């Protein structure tokens, strides 16, 4: 762990609130991201879901829903030189993208892409049975009576957050019933959760419900995190920003379900809007904290020639390390747009090709830079 991170852990433990990194300011907002995308001319070249310019990749098509923050950062990084050239030809000024705006953009990309690559109903059906859900829940009221309500009586299955909110609020009852029946608390992956959702949404009796996914803004989430007692355990070693690097929203949801038995009982109850705020908040926090492998990142730093300039004070490149904010997927986007064009020029002068970085390489590099 780097100095900044351990400092944050210490602070978090002292004040019993997650104070770092940048947590107070973190409220990624998809709507603001969409606004930025329009006003900064991104939309002149890029369509999202078919709307907008045609000459650059449709960003709604390209990002699959399992993208991670490091994945987006790596794609922007890889394509930046071609994009800058296209921008300068069109006399579009390069935008400054601060870390906050990058977080908004990520949230926006995430929401527009949401239904593109749905789970598989067939797998979901299998999970509903193999994870014992069907032991207690029939699909229709006439399908037999378990202790749990039949699926066609569930309130709504519009999106995964709804499912999680329902599951969370009823988990005390479920836990009791499971104990009676000697069923172990089932563990679900995020893919399981997606598949389950698609299966449950497409049953004859639920099929006609209108689906809409709204990426939650994390606004208010931090207050809930305190009020509902999450912060009593999730500080210091258990602080979520250090545990959930590069997760999708369904990863977070699945983690909450899986760790249910370890959390306090009875559970605090959440309304649906509160669950949205809470998940939005937890999800956005990790933009500012990327998990990666320091040793591998070190190798990438060498093999992609970053070291050629950054470890040589005569090259004119700044020595990296001890940043005032820890490096993360979103600060890498900020850096890319701020320092990238100049860096590209220097690379061209030295015949170093613009390094291409995979999602994993990006995450590892970030971890390495934070450890320097
Ligand atoms: C002048 C046209 C133009 C503008 C304006 C523009 N882009 Fe691009 N962008 C491109 C092109 C062209 C590519 C593909 C480059 C390549 O193929 O390597 C691209 C690629 C990308 C990619 C990688 C997509 C992938 O394939 O995964 C991202 C992300 C991206 N742009 C984001 C943005 C954002 C955010 C903005 C606004 C701040 C923006 N772009 C503005 C032309 C543009
Ligand atoms: C041992 C029995 C049992 C098992 C196994 C079980 N549940 Fe439940 N479930 C219950 C009970 C009891 C309730 C509370 C009564 C109710 O609201 O249905 C409940 C409630 C729910 C609710 C809220 C229903 C509503 O009315 O909105 C959802 C959603 C749910 N369970 C999903 C699941 C899923 C998904 C699984 C499998 C991973 C599962 N349950 C496994 C017993 C069980
Ligand atoms: C009584 C202590 C306690 C409370 C209160 C609590 N949790 Fe947890 N939580 C845990 C423990 C213990 C783990 C499991 C950590 C592990 O796997 O080692 C966990 C895991 C998690 C994880 C998964 C983290 C990971 O490492 O994958 C999430 C997300 C989470 N909790 C969210 C919440 C939220 C949201 C609240 C408030 C509604 C909350 N927790 C309240 C103790 C608690
Ligand atoms: C050809 C030399 C060269 C190479 C190769 C190079 N850089 Fe740079 N880098 C620079 C220069 C010069 C700057 C300062 C640009 C400016 O004027 O803003 C810079 C700036 C940066 C910054 C911003 C530093 C700050 O002050 O915030 C980071 C982070 C960075 N580079 C990371 C990398 C990584 C990661 C790689 C490898 C994938 C890399 N660089 C490869 C020359 C290089």
Secondary-structure-derived class: mainly alpha
The small molecules bound here are: heme C
Compute the number of structural domains: 2
Report strand order across the widest sheet: 1-2
Q: Which regions are unreliable across 5 or more consecutive residues at pLDDT < 50? A: 1-25
According to DSSP, the number of beta strands is: 2
The proportion of residues forming helix, as a percent range, comes to 40-55%
Rg is 23 Å
The number of distinct helices, counting runs of at least 4 residues, comes to 20
Compute the average pLDDT: 80
Question: How would the global form be characterised?
Answer: elongated
Mind describing the biggest β-sheet? 2 strands, antiparallel
What is the H/E order?
HHHEEHHHHHHHHHHHHHHHHH
Distance between the termini: 10 Å
Strand content: under 5%
Notes on the structure:
This protein is an all-alpha fold. The protein has two domains: 3-114 and 291-371, no CATH class; 121-201. Helices cover 54% and strands 1% of the residues. The chain contains 20 helices and two strands. A two-stranded antiparallel sheet has the order 1-2. Helix 5 (69-89) packs across helix 20 (359-371), helix 6 crosses helix 19 (329-349) and helix 9 (160-169) crosses helix 16 (272-285). The longest helix has 21 residues, at 69-89. The radius of gyration is 23 Å and the shape is elongated. The termini are close together. It binds heme C (4 copies). The site of one heme C has 21 residues, from helix 18 and helix 19.
């Amino acid at each position: 762990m780097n100095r900044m991170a351990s400092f944050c852990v210490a602070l978090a433990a002292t004040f019993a609130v997650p104070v770092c990194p940048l947590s107070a300011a973190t409220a990624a907002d998809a709507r603001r991201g969409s606004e930025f995308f329009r006003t900064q001319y991104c939309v002149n070249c890029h369509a999202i879901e078919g709307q907008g310019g045609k000459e650059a990749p449709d960003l709604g098509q390209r990002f699959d829903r399992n993208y991670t923050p490091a994945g987006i950062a790596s794609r922007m990084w890889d394509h930046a030189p071609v994009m800058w050239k296209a921008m300068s030809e069109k006399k579009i000024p390069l935008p400054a993208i601060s870390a906050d705006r990058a977080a908004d953009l990520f949230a926006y990309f995430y929401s527009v892409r949401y239904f593109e690559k749905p789970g598989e109903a067939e797998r979901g059906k299998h999970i509903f049975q193999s994870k014992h859900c069907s032991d207690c829940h029939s699909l229709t009221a006439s399908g037999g009576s378990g202790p749990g309500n039949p699926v066609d009586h569930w309130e709504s299955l519009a999106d995964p957050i709804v499912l999680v909110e329902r599951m969370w609020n009823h988990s005390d009852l479920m836990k009791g019933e499971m104990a009676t029946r000697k069923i172990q608390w089932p563990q679900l992956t995020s893919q399981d959760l997606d598949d389950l959702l698609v299966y449950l949404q497409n049953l004859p009796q639920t099929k006609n419900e209108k689906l809409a996914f709204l990426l939650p803004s994390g606004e208010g989430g931090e207050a809930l995190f305190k009020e509902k007692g999450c912060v009593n355990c999730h500080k210091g070693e258990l602080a979520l920003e250090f545990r959930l690097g590069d997760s999708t929203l369904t990863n977070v949801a699945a983690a909450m379900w899986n760790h249910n038995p370890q959390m306090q009982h009875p559970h605090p109850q959440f309304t649906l809007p509160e669950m949205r705020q809470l998940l939005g908040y937890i999800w956005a926090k990790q933009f500012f904290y990327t998990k990666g492998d320091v040793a591998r990142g070190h190798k990438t730093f060498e093999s992609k020639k970053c070291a050629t300039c950054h470890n040589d004070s005569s090259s004119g490149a700044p020595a990296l390390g001890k940043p005032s904010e820890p490096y993360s997927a979103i600060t890498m986007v900020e850096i890319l747009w701020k320092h990238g064009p100049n860096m590209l020029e220097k690379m061209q002068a030295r015949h170093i090709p613009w390094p291409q970085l995979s999602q994993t390489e990006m995450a590892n590099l970030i971890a390495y830079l934070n450890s320097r």
